[in-house]
Amino acid sequence: MTTTTAETRKLYQQVANSIAEAIRDGVHRPGQRLPSERDLAEDYKVSRPTVREAMIALEIRGLVEARHGSGVYVTEAPRPESPEPDLDIGAFELTEARRLIEGEVAALAAATITEDELAELAGILDDMVVENDNNVKGDRADRRFHVTIASASRNSALVTVVENLWDLRYKSPLCRAMLERARQVGVRPRIDDHQEILMALRERDPTAARNAMREHLGRVIDNLLTATEIDALERARNEVAARRTELARRSAI
Q1: How far apart are CA 134 and CA 169, in angstroms?
Q2: Cα–Cα nearest to 53, from 215, 179, 237
Q3: How many of the other CB atoms lie within 10 Å of CB of 126?
Q4: Selection from 46-60, 80-94, 102-116, 239-253 with the highest mean pLDDT
């Protein structure tokens, strides 16, 4: 798939729109399983995360459904399509932006943070543990932790940017759906990562703070990749189990 620079930002939407058109044209019929993620990535010449975002966008539009351990299927009775919703931004792209920006925010905060703010971050970490233990949705403590670091930078523009990036998690239907899928398979805010960030801030070490934040958000991206791969892994396991059952049946004849 070829795109102009201006179109690249919405690459997942191009893939979703192309598949939606194929569904309307009868290339993919109701009840039919779509090609594998790998095949779609090769067909459209995009990354597999882009295909995953496209699949979630199509789910939101009511055109496909993911069946656990089986794959993604065209819905039996696709609802009439309304004008394409503005799905904004996916979780991969958003977290990449956070990694770049919040790494520098943490470095700046390391030079200006106060003892009171360090104590506040330690208390927020305790709240994060409680939220994880009780499976509280919304990651409120996680948001407070990152916004508090931004406030410690003494730069109101950076505070606004960090807050806006966090708010996009909830305003974008695509991002919200991806994060909810990750939560359903057990992805939670990483306490050890946040402890590393706090330790670097306590040491007033900008380089260590930057690296700790960037490594943390890099692992968030890895966790999202793993979470969205789980259905494919389950499908592969089920297919192997089915083959074994069939071989056992045939050998018993």
Answers
A1: 21
A2: 179
A3: 11
A4: 102-116
Query: What length does the chain have?
Result: 253
**DSSP-derived secondary structure for 170-222:** HH-HHHHHHHHHHHHTT----HHHHHHHHHHHHTT-HHHHHHHHHHHHHHHHH
188: left (phi over 0), alpha (psi -120 to 50) or beta: beta
Residue recorded with tokens 């699949």: 55
Q: What is the mean pLDDT of the chain?
A: 83
Q: H helices within 45-155, ranges in order? A: 48-60, 91-112, 115-133, 140-152
pLDDT tens readout for residues 9-38: 478 888 988 999 898 888 988 889 999 888
How many whole angstroms separate alpha carbon 106 and alpha carbon 97? 14
Residue 8 pLDDT exceeds 50: no
**Is residue 191 within 8 Å of residue 125, measured between CB atoms?**
yes
Residue 90 and residue 138: Cα distance in Å, rounded?
17
Q: pTM here?
A: 0.67
Centre a 10 Å sphere on the Cβ of residue 193 and count the other Cβ atoms it contains: 17
For residue 33, count other CB atoms closer than 10 A to its CB: 13
Q: Between residues 6 and 36, which one has the greater pLDDT?
A: 36
Amino acid at site 189: P
> How far is the C-alpha of 234 from the C-alpha of 237, rounded, in Å?
5
What CA–CA distance (Å, rounded) separates 38 from 245?
26
Percentage of the chain lying above the pLDDT 90 cut: 39
